[in-house]
Specification:
The chain is α/β, with parallel strands linked by helices. The strands form three sheets. Strands 6-1-7 form a three-stranded parallel β-sheet. A two-stranded parallel sheet has the order 2-5. Helix 3 packs across helix 6. The radius of gyration is 16 Å and the shape is globular. The N and C termini lie close together (6 Å).
Length: 181
C-alpha cells in the first residue's frame, strides 16, 4: 500500500485542508481497484503495518477504542493536514499482542488516547477505505532487527505475521492486511 501524502492531496478529500486539482492518477486508480476487491471481501477489520510508526523496541499495537485528530505530514505539511477519526478493534489488537508475546516477541499495547497516528497509516486507510467504516488494528514497525541482520529481521517479521494470523483465526475475524510502504 504506497502511502505518499501526495495521494491524499491528489484525491482532494474534504478532510484534508489543502486543495488540489488532482494528480497521481495511476496510483489512485490502483487504489480504486483495490477498494473494489476489498468490497468483495467484506472484511471485519483492516490491519495496517506502517513503517512510519517506528518503534525501537518491540512491536506495538494501537489499543484505544477511537483515535482522532489532525495529522500533518512532517515533510509535506503544505500537502497533508488531514483530520481523521478511526475506530480500533482493541480486542483483536490485544489478541495479536498476546500471541506475539507467547511466541517470544517483545510486544506492547499503545494506550495513549492522544497518540498521533502516523501519516503512512492514515494515507493507506484513506486510500483503501475513504468511508473509514471498518475497524483497524495498527501495528508499528520495529526496524531495529534489520539493523542487526537481515536474516534476524525477516525471521522476526515472519513470527509476527504468524502470531497475528493465529490471533485473527482465534477471534474469528475476517481481516485484510495492508502493508503500508
Amino acid at each position: 500500500a504506497p502511502h505518499p501524502p501526495h495521494l491524499v492531496y491528489g484525491d482532494n478529500p474534504s478532510q484534508n485542508e489543502p486543495a488540489s486539482e488532482g494528480g497521481w492518477e495511476p496510483l489512485r486508480w490502483a487504489y480504486e481497484h483495490a477498494r473494489e476487491s476489498l468490497d468483495r471481501m467484506k472484511p471485519d477489520v483492516l490491519l495496517v503495518h506502517s513503517p512510519h510508526w517506528i518503534t525501537q523496541l518491540g512491536h506495538h499495537f494501537l489499543g484505544v477504542p477511537n483515535l482522532s485528530g489532525k495529522s500533518v505530514d512532517p515533510i509535506f505539511p503544505n500537502l497533508f493536514r488531514y483530520s481523521f477519526s478511526l475506530d480500533i478493534d482493541v480486542e483483536l489488537a490485544e489478541a495479536c499482542c498476546a500471541m506475539a508475546e507467547a511466541k517470544g516477541l517483545v510486544a506492547k499495547m499503545m494506550r495513549n488516547p492522544k497518540f498521533r497516528v502516523d501519516y503512512g497509516t492514515i494515507t493507506t486507510l484513506h486510500m483503501i477505505r475513504p468511508e473509514w467504516d471498518i475497524p483497524v488494528v495498527g501495528i508499528s514497525a520495529n526496524n531495529s532487527p534489520y539493523y542487526l541482520s537481515t536474516e534476524q529481521g525477516l525471521e522476526e517479521m515472519d513470527l509476527l505475521g504468524k502470531a497475528t494470523s493465529e490471533a485473527i483465526e482465534q477471534t474469528g475475524r475476517k481481516a485484510v492486511l495492508l502493508a503500508s510502504n
